[in-house]
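Anyone have tokens for Phage tail protein? Sequence:
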Amino acid sequence: MPISMKVSIDFSQFKQALSQLGEKHFRAAGMIAVNDTARQANNLAVKLVAKESGLKSSDVRKRVRIIRASRSTLTAIVRGSGRALPLYTFNARQTKAGVSAKAWGKRKVYRGSFIATMRTGHVGVFTRTGDDRLPIKELFGPGVAGTMGRAEVRAQIEALIRERLPINVKRQMERRLRAISGKARLAAAAKSKLR
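Reply: yep, here.
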């Protein structure tokens, strides 16, 4: 089940900037600020999930994505998705006692388990469910969505969003004001040259 975190602007905090810039420029600056904040939250989410779960950052990055803000919505979403990942993904190695894998950031031996390749080509870590050779079941480690939804990981990401969003909005508003005032000066200078 996917887990999502929203990044959006509260207009009541930025009434002065809205009056200075006008709606069009405010929305453009807000969109950039929200997308910057979402990108920063995405990077932190990848880092935290990789550390907590024991996955490589590149594997986590494939499963965490950003739904970008537009000028009309000014809301971006950082979404982690995917089910629990096969234990083989966590640097699994066959040992005499079973399979050793580094899920949840700690190496552990899963006694009596084995690495096998199925007819479909899928490689996984399996264990027998009874005394006979069959049936067998595959073992899984943590998933990106589950790890991202844990309270401590979620709290850190939300704290970053609360901290960075006002800073990014302020920076983009100032940048937009400088651009507008610079264009006004250029237009005035061009007008005076024409006279």
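The radius of gyration is 25 Å.
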